[in-house]
């Protein structure tokens, strides 16, 4: 029907497809006439397409060549391989990116009174030498710190140690960092070894002898400076110096000292003593206020001389923090200081960044921590001590103490020996001679017995006489036998005594 | 207009076109990845720290996202093994190059890139003030650093770079040379400078540095071998002679003149002057009001002299200064207060001497400065 109808019409197109009968004439694109011969020669469009594909092929070849080239050169290999593996197969441990640049604004690490709230990092510095015996005690303190552990970076300097300090240190620290309790983990941990060739022995006598002080203090100062310069980072707000041989200290000591918001702050340091020495004693005499006699003394000394506190050779008449302690005083009371001791110092990191350190030379006639106090004062930092906030240093008996204790022990033994001998003597005496007092008693009781018997006989005779007199019957006779029995009993008792 | 013969298009697609597409995809992916930083060599990666909490003198692994962060490892450093020898190159000793910077000179950076000492052994440390100028200098500096560290050839890239910003207000905003050198301003200015230097030094020194090279931000020309040349002398503190290039109007040509007057040998006059001073007063060099008659290294230079001639010094300047790290570790710092009436670098020389380290100067070894615009 359809072709007939169309053939009858004059306006409809001649070649018209059912799907595209929109009435518009087509372009020449698909104007194919089956009635005309068309040779299979390439049209201009086909030709250009062919050349295009050749160009593309050339590009592909070039790109492939480039890739192969880059993949063979060492630098490109890893990243090239990671495209195909999508980074999943890269088990290569060297496949990580490096960060070479660090940026820090030091005004963000000034240190405030509430550092634990503001994520302020503390560098805990511990100089060590032959300290193996004190380490277990120290690590218990370390674990107990209430300041967030991840904000504490710990740095140790182990110098000239002949014992096992280093190994014990590493084991303990690794145990802490590897523990399951993540709140135990500390921040950066540096264990630094450096030998200064110290000749001074570490026993109490050589450490505290007057003659050794100046050179010993200078060496200690060097050790402290080496530790500090190797461990201080631009992200530290505070630096806490702590000796390893502190026996008792509050767990909150970091917060307690920080709360005062001072540039440098130290607690009072005492040590427990045996009863015969008075029970307790001020330990750290390096925290003091400057005095006129001391300044005069300093002026009179040689440039390289070092005044050390607590020795009769240098009478300085300085007020010491240690002696001002009142066990019932306000622990927050502050006192201005000029020299500080090194057992426990909390300082703002900027104090050290600005250059204050532990002079290993005679700085205004002082060295190490005392010189540090003096230097900080010159740089207008606040140096504060807390007279009634006390921590306790471990008691190590000095050679004299040990002698004294040995003497005491000997005396005690001698006394015990004497007592024992005395007791033995008494025993011997008892054994070799009979006891005269006992004999006397015996004789006395014998005599008493005799007199008693005689008395009873007399009484019995009296009674018999009375019975006879009164013509007593059989009842009376019964009483008489009873009385006799009683008398016999009395005899027995007397015999016993 | 609807597209005709949609299904036919696929049939017609040439396998060549598909290949081209695939190749292009690879090409694009490859260059997307390849356009990020070229990788560091394995030897550099081996020396990198595994945690961001680490000495800043070494690069660290970028923390990869995901997973619980591991606690930092127990790191051991043996400072007995850190060598400081006359031949740092052979012993692969680490150099810490420190620069307090107020302005960024592109020539300064170009000069750094020319240093012949292996860059993978050099750590750079900068400290900039918190001023408008300081901000601008930081931006410029960071641009150049990114260019070098990310896109530069690996041999140009430095081991690590630390940028610090000061935490105190600068005492003087003017960098004008005349104002800067006024005597009254000197003590405050140099005390601040000393604090800058100390802050930079003591927070970056770390446990592996062998030598510290102090180089001022305006030193735009040094011999490329300066580190090796200075280290060769094996001295605790060593200072080359600093000169400034300028346009000489009389001679109508570029000329040089002595610049750093802080390198000197003490004189009895200066010592007598010091005796009469208050404890907080400082002696300054190069001011006619205060004639010290010290022997200045700046004037000891001889054109025909031996390049490596040494003279002992009592005061040093900081323009270019090579120091053994041990000297700083022992506690020799730049006093920001009057230390024996000396301050900053001069005080440093004195403190080093008190610790038993003797500074040495090289009058004939020259380091040049930039053009001075005003005198």
Q: What is the N-to-C order of secondary-structure elements of chain B (H for helix, E for strand)?
A: HHHEEEHEHEHHEHEEEHEEEHHE
The SS-based structural class of chain B is alpha/beta
Based on the coordinates given, report the CATH architecture of the largest domain in chain A.
Alpha-Beta Complex
Gross morphology of chain A = elongated
Low-confidence regions of chain B: none
CATH architecture of chain B: Alpha-Beta Complex
Total domain units of chain A: 3
- Under CATH, the homologous superfamily of the largest domain in chain A reads Spore Coat Polysaccharide Biosynthesis Protein SpsA, Chain A
Helix content of chain B: 25-40%
Q: What keyword list fits this structure?
A:
heterodimer, A: 497 residues, alpha/beta, Spore Coat Polysaccharide Biosynthesis Protein SpsA, Chain A, 3 domains, ten-stranded mixed β-sheet, 14 helices, 12 strands, 44% helix, 13% strand, disordered C terminus, B: 375 residues, nine-stranded mixed β-sheet, two-stranded antiparallel ribbon, 11 helices, 13 strands, 20% strand, globular
Could you please describe the fold and organization of this structure?
The complex is a heterodimer of chains A (497) and B (375). Chain A is built from 14 helices and 12 strands. Chain A is α/β, with parallel strands linked by helices. Chain A has 3 domains: 106-396, Spore Coat Polysaccharide Biosynthesis Protein SpsA, Chain A, CATH 3.90.550; 397-433; 441-496. In chain A, strand 8 and strand 9 (280-282) form a beta hairpin. The relative contact order of chain A is 0.08. Helix content of chain B is 31%, strand content 20%. Chain B is built from 11 helices and 13 strands. Chain B has helices at residues 6-12, 15-34, 42-46, 106-114, 132-151, 177-180, 183-204, 226-231, 268-275, 325-329, 344-354, and strands spanning 60-61, 74-78, 94-100, 122-128, 160-165, 209-215, 237-248, 253-258, 264-265, 295-296, 311-312, 320-324, 359-369. In chain B, helix 4 links the parallel strand 3 and strand 4. The longest helix of chain B is centred in the middle third of the chain and has 22 residues, at 183-204. Chain B is globular, with a radius of gyration of 26 Å. The chains are: A alpha/beta (497), B alpha/beta (375). Chains A and B meet through helix 2, helix 3, strand 1, strand 2 and helix 5 of A and helix 2, helix 3, strand 1, strand 2 and helix 5 of B. Strand 2 of chain A pairs parallel with strand 5 (160-165) of chain B.
């Amino acid at each position: 029907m359809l072709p007939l109808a169309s053939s009858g019409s004059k306006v409809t197109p001649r070649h018209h497809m059912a799907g595209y009968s929109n009435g518009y004439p087509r372009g020449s694109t698909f104007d194919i006439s089956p009635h005309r011969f068309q040779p299979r020669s390439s049209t201009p469009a086909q030709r250009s397409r062919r050349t295009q594909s050749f160009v593309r092929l050339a590009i592909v070849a070039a790109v492939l060549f480039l890739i192969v080239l880059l993949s063979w050169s060492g630098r490109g290999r890893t990243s090239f391989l990671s495209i195909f593996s999508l980074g999943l197969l890269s088990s290569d441990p060297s496949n990580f990116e490096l960060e070479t640049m660090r940026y820090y604004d030091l005004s963000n690490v000034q240190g405030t009174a509430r550092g634990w709230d503001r994520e302020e990092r503390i560098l805990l510095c511990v100089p060590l030498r032959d300290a193996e015996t004190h380490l277990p005690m120290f690590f218990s303190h370390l674990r107990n710190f209430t300041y967030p552990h991840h904000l504490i970076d710990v740095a140790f300097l182990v110098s000239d140690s002949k014992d096992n300090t280093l190994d014990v240190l590493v084991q303990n620290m690794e145990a802490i960092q590897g523990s399951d309790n993540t709140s135990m983990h500390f921040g950066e941990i540096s264990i630094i070894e450096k030998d200064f060739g110290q000749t001074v022995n570490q026993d109490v006598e050589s450490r505290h002898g007057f003659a050794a002080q100046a050179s010993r203090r200078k060496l200690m100062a060097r050790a402290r400076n080496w530790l500090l310069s190797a461990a201080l980072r631009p992200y530290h707000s505070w630096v806490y110096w702590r000796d390893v041989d502190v026996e008792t200290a509050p767990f909150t000591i970091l917060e307690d000292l920080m709360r005062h918001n001072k540039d440098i702050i130290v607690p009072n340091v005492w040590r427990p003593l045996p009863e015969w020495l008075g029970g307790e004693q001020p330990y750290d005499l390096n925290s003091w206020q400057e005095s006129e006699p001391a300044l005069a003394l300093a002026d009179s000394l040689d440039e390289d001389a070092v005044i050390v506190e607590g020795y009769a050779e240098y009478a300085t008449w300085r007020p010491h923090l240690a002696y001002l302690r009142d066990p019932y005083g306000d622990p927050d009371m502050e006192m201005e200081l000029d020299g500080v001791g090194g057992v426990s110092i909390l300082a703002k990191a900027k104090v050290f960044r600005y250059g204050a350190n532990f002079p290993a030379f005679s700085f205004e006639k002082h060295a190490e921590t005392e010189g540090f106090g003096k230097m900080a004062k010159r740089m207008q930092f606040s140096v504060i001590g807390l007279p009634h906030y006390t921590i306790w240093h471990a008691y190590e008996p000095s050679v004299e103490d040990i002698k004294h204790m040995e003497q005491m022990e000997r005396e005690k033994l001698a006394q015990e020996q004497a007592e024992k001998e005395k007791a033995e003597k008494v025993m011997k005496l008892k054994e070799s001679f009979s006891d005269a007092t006992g004999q006397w008693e015996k004789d006395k009781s014998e005599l008493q017995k005799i007199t008693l018997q005689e008395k009873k006989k007399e009484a019995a005779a009296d009674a018999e006489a009375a019975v006879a007199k009164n013509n007593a019957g059989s009842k009376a006779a019964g009483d008489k036998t009873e009385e006799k029995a009683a008398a016999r009993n009395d005899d027995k008792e007397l015999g016993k005594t | 207009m609807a597209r005709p013969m949609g299904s036919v298009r696929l049939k017609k697609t040439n396998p060549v076109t598909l290949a081209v597409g695939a190749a292009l995809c690879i090409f694009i992916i490859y260059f997307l990845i390849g356009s990020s930083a070229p990788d560091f060599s394995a030897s550099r990666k081996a020396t990198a720290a595994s945690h961001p909490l680490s000495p800043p003198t070494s690069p660290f692994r970028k923390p990869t996202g995901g997973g619980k962060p591991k606690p930092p490892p127990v790191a051991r450093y043996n400072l007995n093994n850190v060598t400081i020898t006359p031949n740092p190159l052979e012993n692969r000793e680490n150099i810490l190059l420190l620069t307090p910077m107020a302005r960024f000179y592109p020539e300064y950076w170009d000069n750094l890139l020319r240093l012949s000492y292996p860059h993978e052994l050099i750590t750079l440390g900068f400290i900039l003030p918190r001023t408008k100028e300081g901000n601008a200098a930081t931006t410029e500096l960071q641009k150049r650093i990114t260019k070098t560290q990310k896109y530069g050839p690996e041999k140009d890239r430095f081991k690590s770079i630390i940028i610090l910003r000061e935490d105190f207000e600068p005492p003087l905003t003017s960098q004008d040379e005349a104002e800067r050198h006024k005597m009254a301003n000197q003590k405050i200015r140099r005390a601040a400078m000393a604090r800058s230097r100390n802050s930079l030094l003591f927070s970056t020194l770390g446990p592996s540095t062998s030598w510290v090279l102090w180089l001022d931000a305006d030193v735009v020309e040094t011999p490329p071998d300066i580190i090796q040349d200075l280290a060769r002398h094996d001295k605790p503190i060593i200072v080359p002679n600093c000169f400034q290039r300028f346009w000489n109007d009389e001679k109508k040509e570029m000329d040089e003149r002595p610049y750093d007057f802080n390198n000197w040998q003490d004189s009895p006059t200066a010592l007598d002057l010091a005796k009469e001073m208050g404890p907080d007063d400082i002696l300054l060099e190069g001011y006619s009001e205060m004639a010290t008659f010290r022997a200045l290294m700046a004037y000891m230079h001889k054109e025909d002299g031996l390049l490596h001639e040494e003279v002992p010094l009592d005061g040093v300047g900081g323009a270019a200064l090579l120091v053994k790290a041990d000297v700083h570790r022992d506690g020799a710092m730049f006093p920001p207060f009057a230390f024996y009436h000396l301050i900053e670098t001069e005080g440093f020389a004195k403190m080093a001497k008190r610790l038993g380290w003797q500074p040495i100067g090289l009058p004939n070894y020259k380091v040049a400065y930039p053009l001075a615009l005003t005198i």
